[in-house]
Amino acid sequence: MPDAIVTHHHDGYRSGVGRFNELLADRLGVPLLGLGELGRPMSCPLLSFKVRELPREGVDAVAAAISAGHWEWDVFLHDWAGLPLEEQIVSGARVVHCGNDEIRAQVEHLNPSHDTLWSPGLILDERLYRPSEIEIFSFGMAHKVQTEHFRRLRELLDASCRSYAVYVSAANHEMASLRDSSIVFEEMHEIFPGSLYFLGNLSDVAVYNHLRQATFFAAFFEHGVRANNGSVSAAMERGAVTITNLDEHSPREYVHMDNLLDIAQLDTLPSDSLALKQISVRAMETQGERSWSKLIDRLR
């Protein structure tokens, strides 16, 4: 059995192969190593990465490690591009595990010790969304270090004696980076154990629908919300009742209990549907004066 899994992505949120390797290492009970750890003591690691995705320094590191002859290796091929390093890895491997039959057909002439395997499903969290009286939605990366405000929000939610669920997206655009996703999830899960649903990186249309459906949108900042915080602008434009934090540099138009909610001034979460509707309407009116067309007019 391999005594280590070698991967090029340590973050399973960034890559399906990375996620596969995390789960594989956990189930085998062996360490998951990055390319920078190839010098660690091991006798037969499983090389499990896409060579075509490696940076130049990664290619050099792998080539040097297998040429040094300090250990044997197995390989799991997730795809095949016919690159020189791929051929070197496959030809010298103890066993070549092919992710599918197409890959096997491309490499079988390079090493007689090969088989065809597969990838099981990578979904572990199988909780159904719980129907809740209060739904909190948050997106964007600004909230990842503002845990004290989310802890206060948790206190207000608990005090409401109503069921609640918290939905968190890592970023607000389809191509945004997910490098901090695991940090966000760990921090938020510690605050909302059992009631947090991490949504990963949502498209604009998914964010829009969550904003329309949520009871509250929550986003907190190091000092206070600013005029150029796009996540809050997007939420208020769509009429989401926004919970955030205000300070002396927040827009003067942002007024607690008028067009948004300031976490520092909340003793209880408002529940009256008419009051929430009024805040929603005032949020849209406020952001109507801060629209793209108004901005273009100012810049002309």
Protein structure class: alpha/beta
> Total number of β-strand segments?
12
Termini distance?
67 Å
Describe the sheet with the most strands. Answer: 6 strands, parallel
Mean pLDDT: 89
Secondary-structure blueprint of this entry?
Blueprint: E1 5-6, H1 16-28, E2 32-33, E3 46-47, H2 56-68, E4 74-77, H3 84-92, E5 96-98, H4 101-107, E6 114-116, E7 134-138, H5 147-159, E8 164-171, H6 181-191, E9 196-201, H7 204-213, E10 216-218, H8 230-237, E11 242-244, E12 261-262, H9 273-288, H10 292-299
Parallel strand pairs: 1-2, 1-3, 3-4, 4-5, 5-6, 7-8, 7-10, 8-9, 10-11, 11-12
Helix pairs in contact: 2-3
Keywords:
6-stranded parallel sheet; single chain; alpha/beta; 300 residues; 10 helices
Please give a quick description of this structure.
The protein is built from ten helices and twelve strands.
Structure description:
- The structure is a single chain.
- The chain is built from 10 helices and 12 strands.
- The strands form 2 sheets. Strands 2-1-3-4-5-6 form a 6-stranded parallel β-sheet.
- Helix 2 packs parallel to helix 3.
- The longest helix is centred in the C-terminal third of the chain and has 16 residues.
- It starts with a strand and ends with a helix.
- About 3% of the residues have low confidence.
